[in-house]
Amino acid sequence: MSGLPIDYYAILEISPTATPQQIRDAYKKQALKSHPDRVPSDSPERPTRTKKFQRINDAYYTLSDPTRRRDYDSARLYHGFPSSTASSASDSDPEEEIPRPDADNNAPPPSGGFPWSAFGFGAKNPAEEETFSSEQFGSVFEEMLREEGMAEGQAAQPTGKFWSLVGGLSGGAMGFIVANFPGAVAGAVAGNRLGAVRDARGKSVYSVFQELPQGDKARLLSEMAAKVFAHAVGS
Fold first, then answer.
1. Phi and psi (nearest 5°) for 66?
2. CA Rg value for the chain
3. What is the dihedral of CA 147, 148, 153, 159, to 10 degrees?
4. Nearest Cα residue to 8 out of 77, 98, 89, 106
5. How far is CA 125 from CA 96, 130, 132, 144, 228, in A?
6. In this predicted model, what pLDDT tens digit does every residue of 110-160 receive, in sequence order?
7. DSSP reduced 3-state for 185
8. pLDDT digits (tens, 9 = 90+) for 75-103
9. Measuring CA to CA, which residue among 31, 10, 14, 32 is closest to residue 23?
Protein backbone atom coordinates (compact mmCIF):
# COMPACT_ATOMS: atom_id res chain seq x y z
CA MET A 1 0.00 0.00 0.00
CA SER A 2 2.96 2.36 0.37
CA GLY A 3 2.85 3.34 -3.31
CA LEU A 4 -0.88 4.01 -3.49
CA PRO A 5 -2.45 7.46 -3.17
CA ILE A 6 -5.25 8.15 -0.76
CA ASP A 7 -8.69 8.00 -2.39
CA TYR A 8 -9.82 11.62 -2.45
CA TYR A 9 -13.15 10.69 -4.00
CA ALA A 10 -13.92 8.45 -1.05
CA ILE A 11 -12.96 11.21 1.38
CA LEU A 12 -15.52 13.54 -0.20
CA GLU A 13 -17.97 10.64 -0.60
CA ILE A 14 -18.48 11.20 -4.31
CA SER A 15 -18.10 9.24 -7.52
CA PRO A 16 -14.96 9.57 -9.65
CA THR A 17 -17.31 10.90 -12.35
CA ALA A 18 -18.59 13.75 -10.15
CA THR A 19 -19.02 17.15 -11.77
CA PRO A 20 -17.11 20.22 -10.51
CA GLN A 21 -20.28 21.46 -8.79
CA GLN A 22 -20.80 18.09 -7.09
CA ILE A 23 -17.21 18.20 -5.86
CA ARG A 24 -17.73 21.70 -4.45
CA ASP A 25 -21.03 20.75 -2.82
CA ALA A 26 -19.47 17.63 -1.30
CA TYR A 27 -16.58 19.70 0.06
CA LYS A 28 -18.99 22.08 1.77
CA LYS A 29 -20.80 19.21 3.47
CA GLN A 30 -17.70 17.35 4.59
CA ALA A 31 -15.83 20.48 5.73
CA LEU A 32 -18.76 21.71 7.82
CA LYS A 33 -19.32 18.24 9.24
CA SER A 34 -15.70 17.75 10.31
CA HIS A 35 -14.53 21.30 11.09
CA PRO A 36 -12.39 21.30 14.27
CA ASP A 37 -14.22 24.34 15.65
CA ARG A 38 -17.38 22.30 16.07
CA VAL A 39 -15.85 20.95 19.29
CA PRO A 40 -14.14 22.79 22.20
CA SER A 41 -10.45 23.56 21.81
CA ASP A 42 -9.60 21.14 24.63
CA SER A 43 -11.81 18.33 23.33
CA PRO A 44 -10.07 14.96 22.81
CA GLU A 45 -11.78 14.91 19.39
CA ARG A 46 -9.90 17.99 18.24
CA PRO A 47 -6.72 16.32 16.86
CA THR A 48 -8.73 13.74 14.93
CA ARG A 49 -11.06 16.37 13.52
CA THR A 50 -8.14 18.59 12.55
CA LYS A 51 -6.44 15.75 10.69
CA LYS A 52 -9.65 14.79 8.90
CA PHE A 53 -10.39 18.43 8.03
CA GLN A 54 -6.93 18.78 6.48
CA ARG A 55 -7.48 15.58 4.50
CA ILE A 56 -10.80 16.94 3.19
CA ASN A 57 -9.07 20.15 2.13
CA ASP A 58 -6.30 18.18 0.45
CA ALA A 59 -8.94 16.25 -1.51
CA TYR A 60 -10.75 19.41 -2.58
CA TYR A 61 -7.52 21.14 -3.56
CA THR A 62 -6.66 18.24 -5.87
CA LEU A 63 -10.08 17.55 -7.37
CA SER A 64 -11.27 21.14 -7.81
CA ASP A 65 -8.53 21.99 -10.29
CA PRO A 66 -8.95 20.36 -13.76
CA THR A 67 -5.22 19.82 -14.30
CA ARG A 68 -4.54 18.41 -10.84
CA ARG A 69 -7.62 16.21 -11.10
CA ARG A 70 -6.60 14.87 -14.53
CA ASP A 71 -3.12 13.96 -13.28
CA TYR A 72 -4.56 12.38 -10.14
CA ASP A 73 -7.11 10.36 -12.17
CA SER A 74 -4.33 9.13 -14.44
CA ALA A 75 -2.36 7.97 -11.42
CA ARG A 76 -5.43 6.23 -9.99
CA LEU A 77 -5.96 4.42 -13.28
CA TYR A 78 -2.31 3.39 -13.41
CA HIS A 79 -2.59 1.82 -9.97
CA GLY A 80 -5.81 0.02 -10.79
CA PHE A 81 -8.22 1.92 -8.56
CA PRO A 82 -11.85 0.84 -8.96
CA SER A 83 -14.22 3.16 -10.79
CA SER A 84 -16.40 3.54 -7.69
CA THR A 85 -15.33 4.98 -4.36
CA ALA A 86 -13.99 2.66 -1.69
CA SER A 87 -15.97 3.21 1.48
CA SER A 88 -13.06 2.27 3.72
CA ALA A 89 -10.65 4.76 2.20
CA SER A 90 -11.99 7.75 4.10
CA ASP A 91 -11.35 5.97 7.39
CA SER A 92 -7.81 4.90 6.59
CA ASP A 93 -4.69 6.63 7.78
CA PRO A 94 -3.22 8.86 5.06
CA GLU A 95 0.16 8.68 6.74
CA GLU A 96 0.28 5.04 5.71
CA GLU A 97 -0.98 5.65 2.19
CA ILE A 98 1.11 8.63 1.14
CA PRO A 99 4.86 8.02 1.43
CA ARG A 100 6.77 10.89 3.03
CA PRO A 101 10.11 11.83 1.45
CA ASP A 102 11.83 11.98 4.85
CA ALA A 103 10.39 8.69 6.13
CA ASP A 104 13.18 6.49 4.82
CA ASN A 105 15.88 7.86 2.55
CA ASN A 106 16.92 4.34 1.61
CA ALA A 107 13.46 3.14 0.72
CA PRO A 108 12.71 2.45 -2.96
CA PRO A 109 10.43 4.89 -4.80
CA PRO A 110 6.70 4.14 -4.90
CA SER A 111 5.47 1.69 -7.50
CA GLY A 112 5.81 3.29 -10.93
CA GLY A 113 7.96 6.07 -9.46
CA PHE A 114 5.02 8.45 -9.35
CA PRO A 115 5.55 11.60 -7.20
CA TRP A 116 2.52 11.47 -4.93
CA SER A 117 3.70 14.69 -3.32
CA ALA A 118 2.42 16.39 -6.47
CA PHE A 119 -1.08 15.89 -5.11
CA GLY A 120 -2.51 17.90 -2.27
CA PHE A 121 -1.15 21.22 -1.18
CA GLY A 122 2.23 19.85 -0.19
CA ALA A 123 2.51 21.63 3.17
CA LYS A 124 5.79 21.02 4.94
CA ASN A 125 4.49 20.85 8.51
CA PRO A 126 1.23 20.68 10.53
CA ALA A 127 1.13 24.46 11.00
CA GLU A 128 1.23 25.02 7.24
CA GLU A 129 -1.42 22.38 6.70
CA GLU A 130 -3.70 24.04 9.23
CA THR A 131 -3.18 27.48 7.68
CA PHE A 132 -3.88 26.21 4.17
CA SER A 133 -7.02 24.35 5.27
CA SER A 134 -8.33 27.44 7.03
CA GLU A 135 -7.70 29.72 4.05
CA GLN A 136 -9.28 27.33 1.56
CA PHE A 137 -12.30 26.76 3.77
CA GLY A 138 -12.62 30.52 4.29
CA SER A 139 -13.26 31.22 0.61
CA VAL A 140 -15.97 28.56 0.42
CA PHE A 141 -17.41 29.63 3.78
CA GLU A 142 -17.82 33.16 2.46
CA GLU A 143 -19.53 31.80 -0.65
CA MET A 144 -21.98 29.87 1.53
CA LEU A 145 -22.78 32.96 3.58
CA ARG A 146 -23.30 35.00 0.42
CA GLU A 147 -25.84 32.40 -0.73
CA GLU A 148 -27.65 32.80 2.59
CA GLY A 149 -27.61 36.60 2.40
CA MET A 150 -25.14 36.87 5.29
CA ALA A 151 -22.24 38.36 3.30
CA GLU A 152 -22.06 40.85 0.47
CA GLY A 153 -19.65 42.68 -1.79
CA GLN A 154 -16.25 41.70 -3.15
CA ALA A 155 -14.80 41.67 0.36
CA ALA A 156 -17.63 39.42 1.66
CA GLN A 157 -18.56 41.84 4.43
CA PRO A 158 -21.11 40.67 7.01
CA THR A 159 -24.70 41.76 6.51
CA GLY A 160 -27.33 42.54 9.12
CA LYS A 161 -28.62 38.99 8.70
CA PHE A 162 -25.24 37.60 9.76
CA TRP A 163 -24.99 39.90 12.78
CA SER A 164 -28.53 39.01 13.82
CA LEU A 165 -27.68 35.32 13.75
CA VAL A 166 -24.43 35.82 15.66
CA GLY A 167 -26.18 38.04 18.17
CA GLY A 168 -28.63 35.29 18.92
CA LEU A 169 -26.01 32.61 19.46
CA SER A 170 -25.13 33.53 23.01
CA GLY A 171 -25.87 36.18 25.57
CA GLY A 172 -22.36 37.61 25.40
CA ALA A 173 -22.13 37.89 21.60
CA MET A 174 -23.16 41.53 21.35
CA GLY A 175 -20.67 42.66 23.99
CA PHE A 176 -17.92 40.65 22.34
CA ILE A 177 -18.61 42.19 18.93
CA VAL A 178 -18.73 45.78 20.12
CA ALA A 179 -15.64 45.30 22.31
CA ASN A 180 -13.51 43.52 19.70
CA PHE A 181 -14.37 45.26 16.46
CA PRO A 182 -13.49 48.97 16.64
CA GLY A 183 -15.94 50.88 14.49
CA ALA A 184 -18.75 48.39 15.06
CA VAL A 185 -21.89 50.21 16.04
CA ALA A 186 -24.75 48.24 17.61
CA GLY A 187 -28.23 48.80 16.23
CA ALA A 188 -31.60 47.69 17.56
CA VAL A 189 -31.34 45.22 20.42
CA ALA A 190 -34.05 43.00 21.84
CA GLY A 191 -32.87 41.28 24.99
CA ASN A 192 -29.62 39.54 24.14
CA ARG A 193 -30.37 39.38 20.43
CA LEU A 194 -28.39 41.70 18.19
CA GLY A 195 -30.59 43.50 15.71
CA ALA A 196 -27.87 45.00 13.51
CA VAL A 197 -24.21 45.98 13.52
CA ARG A 198 -22.38 48.27 11.14
CA ASP A 199 -18.68 47.43 10.89
CA ALA A 200 -16.82 50.52 9.77
CA ARG A 201 -13.59 48.54 9.40
CA GLY A 202 -15.05 46.40 6.64
CA LYS A 203 -13.79 43.02 7.88
CA SER A 204 -14.71 39.97 5.83
CA VAL A 205 -17.29 37.65 7.30
CA TYR A 206 -14.69 34.89 7.68
CA SER A 207 -12.33 37.20 9.55
CA VAL A 208 -15.15 37.99 11.96
CA PHE A 209 -15.94 34.28 12.30
CA GLN A 210 -12.34 33.46 13.20
CA GLU A 211 -12.37 35.99 16.06
CA LEU A 212 -15.64 34.84 17.59
CA PRO A 213 -15.64 32.91 20.89
CA GLN A 214 -15.19 29.20 20.23
CA GLY A 215 -18.68 28.31 21.40
CA ASP A 216 -20.23 30.74 18.93
CA LYS A 217 -18.05 29.36 16.14
CA ALA A 218 -19.41 25.88 16.86
CA ARG A 219 -23.00 27.08 16.86
CA LEU A 220 -22.57 29.03 13.63
CA LEU A 221 -20.96 26.04 11.90
CA SER A 222 -23.84 23.86 13.05
CA GLU A 223 -26.34 26.39 11.69
CA MET A 224 -24.56 26.44 8.33
CA ALA A 225 -24.28 22.66 8.22
CA ALA A 226 -28.03 22.32 8.81
CA LYS A 227 -28.71 24.72 5.92
CA VAL A 228 -26.33 22.97 3.54
CA PHE A 229 -27.67 19.51 4.40
CA ALA A 230 -31.24 20.75 4.02
CA HIS A 231 -30.45 22.10 0.57
CA ALA A 232 -28.83 18.78 -0.40
CA VAL A 233 -31.90 16.81 0.66
CA GLY A 234 -34.24 19.20 -1.10
CA SER A 235 -32.35 19.26 -4.38
1. -55, -40
2. 20
3. 180
4. 89
5. 17, 9, 11, 29, 31
6. 333 344 445 555 555 778 888 889 999 999 999 999 988 989 888 898 887
7. strand
8. 888 887 765 444 434 444 433 333 333 33
9. 14
∠8-40-207 over CA atoms, to 5°? 75
pTM: 0.72
Q: How far is CA 119 from CA 5, 17, 122, 141, 224, in A?
A: 9, 18, 7, 23, 29
Q: Indicate the Cα dihedral angle 31, 23, 112, 79, nearest 10°.
A: 110
Beta carbons of 57 and 121 less than 8 angstroms apart: yes
Q: Considering only CA atoms, which of 73, 50, 54 is closest in space to residue 63?
A: 73
Cβ atoms 137, 144 nearer than 8 A? no
The beta strands (E) that lie in 184-228 are given as: 184-186, 189-190, 193-194, 197-199
Beta bridge partners of 193: 190
